[in-house]
Amino acid sequence: MSLSFEVQHRDPTGARHGLLATPHGLIETPAFMPVGTAATVKGLTQEALEALGAKIILANTYHLYLRPGHVLIRKLGGLHSFMSWRGAILTDSGGYQVYSLADLRKMTDDGVRFRSHLDGSEHLLTPEKAAEIQLALGSDIAMVLDECIETPAPRSIAEAALRRTSAWAQRARKYFLENAQQNGDRPQWQFGIVQGATFADLRRESARQLLALDFPGYAVGGLAVGEPHEVTCEMAGEVTALLPTDRPRYLMGVGRPEQLADYVALGVDMMDCVLPTRAARHACLYTSEGRVLIKNARYFEDQRPIDPNCCCSVCRRYTRAYLRHLFAAGEITAAILATHHNVHFYLDIMRQIREAIRFGHLQKFAAGVRAQYRSGPH
Ligand SMILES: [Zn+2]
């Protein structure tokens, strides 16, 4: 079975409810992808992810390339088989991770030369190499290598990164088209990544250059990295307005619970973010009534669930007092239960967003979520 995407409903805001078909199941969009950096979503087993209804997760090319290595994963039947995950997988290109290495990397037109954060060994990540690794991993959706830059960035730096990102996308596309059929029964889609920092005209130019390469889907990268939410939305909107309506759009690395509907209203179909899992490990819980910082002394003898309106297995069984105790005692179960709830919360928001789109009232839903979160942490 190959991949396909179809928009089924549209909301007056511009939001789309669609169906992404992959060899590893059907995914209703807009979809949130929990982040499984090293072939595991920290704190959750694959059984737990299935029970939560996660249909697609994200895995990191950089981490899996360094450990255990894409050659081993291919030998063991690909990433789905290796980690025993029946759902779909999107792999990033490693571009953002090598950018984050700062002193350990050097960008050239050929690619990024970097030192492993694990053992200091030297590697060269090129657009072709990033595509090769992801073909070996056998993810359902692969990303091209892009150049990430710091924001706010001077225009000249953003322009140079845009040029390089487009040139790399061309090389990645060529390599992918020449080598993809060798994967045989593991069809894969390769997405392009629009860059351009916070310059609207550069965003549009980047989108136009990538459109010429005819990717089956497009991502918007380099946003939600410190700029105001309004700017993130403005830049994402500049791009989605130019993208083909029949292909999926993926906004990388977003976002806060109260922001998800804003991105969806711009016509975004896919999102990923470490927030629900990372915040959970730091005792920050997302609820229908705002954030709960569970270590707070006020929960010492609180018999209520994390979120009285949540139907997840953690909220049905455990109290705030117990969760607070587990965090105070440094028990690993604290992170497991908190992660379970937070991922459920994100997946549930997306489910509600899809329902709101079907009924054409996403704007009202978004205003409701924002009002809950304005009240701040409880
Ligand atoms: Zn819950």
For this entry, give a set of tags.
alpha/beta, 8-stranded parallel beta sheet, 19% strand, globular, binds zinc ion
Explain this structure to me?
An eight-stranded parallel β-sheet has the order 4-14-13-12-11-10-6-5. A three-stranded antiparallel β-sheet has the order 1-2-3. It is an alpha/beta fold. It has 15 helices and 16 strands. The structure holds zinc ion (ZN). Zinc ion is lined by residues 306-307, 310, 312, 314-315, 341, 344. Zinc ion binds next to helix 12 and helix 14.
Secondary-structure map with pairings?
Elements: E1 4-10, E2 16-22, E3 25-29, E4 31-34, H1 46-52, E5 56-59, H2 61-66, H3 70-75, H4 79-83, E6 88-91, H5 95-100, E7 105-107, E8 112-115, E9 122-125, H6 127-137, E10 141-143, H7 155-179, E11 189-194, H8 200-211, E12 217-220, H9 229-240, E13 249-251, H10 260-265, E14 270-273, H11 275-281, E15 284-287, E16 290-293, H12 313-317, H13 320-328, H14 332-359, H15 362-374
Helix pairs in contact: 6-7, 7-8, 8-9, 11-14, 13-14, 14-15
